[in-house]
Specification:
This is Glycine cleavage system H protein. By secondary structure, this protein is an alpha+beta fold. The protein has helices at about 30-35, 80-85, 120-125, and strands spanning about 10, 15-20, 25-30, 40-45, 50, 55-60, 65-70, 75-80, 100-105. The protein has one domain (about 10-125): RNA polymerase II/Efflux pump adaptor protein, barrel-sandwich hybrid domain (OB fold (Dihydrolipoamide Acetyltransferase, E2P)).
Amino acid sequence: MVDYPEDLKYQDSHEYVRLEGEIATIGISAFAVEELGDIVFLELPESGDAVEQGETFGSVESVKAVEDMYAPVSGTVIDRNEPLIDAPEQLAEDPYGEGWLIKVRLDNPDDELEDVLSAQEYRALVEGDE
């Protein structure tokens, strides 16, 4: 059973965002990890790089495919999950905890999450309940 934590917001491209004040933690959903299969490589931006809402911020490569990841928010990368870059297969173990990808300081904290999905909306999207 795939988990959809209620405290997260999701994009239809399978990224999630957790907001804590002006800081957004971004990762990819357990559904996406399961669909990708064995993950072998991650490409993530460096600290200090700018990310733009709706634009590509990196990619994830599995034995099945290479998928671009799209930023759910705009801002400046303040941290990236270095241990995950060295061992991307660990993303499957805890995508919502230790499997986060980047942390971003938001440009506009009040205007960022207009086009994201709740956990229920995302579940309906990926499980075909709409």
